[in-house]
Amino acid sequence: MSDTTTTKKPSVHDCELIVPRLADDDRARRACDCFPTPGDINVTWAYPGRIVAWHRHQRQTDNWLVVKGNLKVGLMDDDRNVRWVYLSEHDRRTLRIPPGVWHGFMVLGNEEAILVYYITEKYNLEKPDEERLTVDAAGVDWSVPVK
User: Fold this and answer.
1) Measured in whole angstroms, how far is the alpha carbon of residue 131 from the centre of its chain?
2) Phi–psi pair at 106, nearest 5 degrees
3) Nearest alpha-carbon partner for 72 in 90, 62, 87, 60
4) d(CA 112, CA 88)
5) b/e for 97-107, b at 16 or more Cβ within 10 A?
């Protein structure tokens, strides 16, 4: 008995260019959904001197990797416990942020930082899985102490 199924041979015409959704504002430039996944793989070009905080998600988990520059990342729970994590192009660690944890970042240094991150849910511009809290409302000091 012979196999009568045919498998289509891959072609250069099967390749496609994906144009990401772009979201730019005064804090950073972002390219969202760069790779087709159940969630989004995004890139942020973060500007120095800006604090991008605070927000949290109900369903989404964030996974952050800095590919250029240095970030001071703030993590905060509902009891206002704060943890600082430093991500850099030199340490190549990924930070996983589960739902419910407030988070944000600040660029350290005078050059923009590039953050690549995978979020487990597709970003919905009309109804984002996002709750925001201003830097002032959180009452957290983002200054970098001189030691």
Assistant:
1) 15
2) -140, 135
3) 87
4) 12
5) beeebbbbbbb
User: So where are the chain's domains?
Assistant: 19-122
The two three-digit tokens of residue 46, written as one number: 């973060």
CATH no., domain 19-122: 2.60.120.10
pTM as predicted: 0.79
Please list the alpha-helical segments (H only) found in 1-147.
135-138
Find tokens 């991150």 and name the residue.
117
Strand order in the sheet with 102-108: 82-88, 70-76, 102-108, 51-56, 131-132
The one-digit pLDDT tens for each residue of the chain (147 residues) are: 555 667 888 676 776 777 888 888 888 888 877 777 889 999 999 999 899 999 999 999 999 999 999 999 999 999 999 999 999 999 888 999 999 999 999 999 999 999 999 999 988 889 999 999 999 999 999 998 888
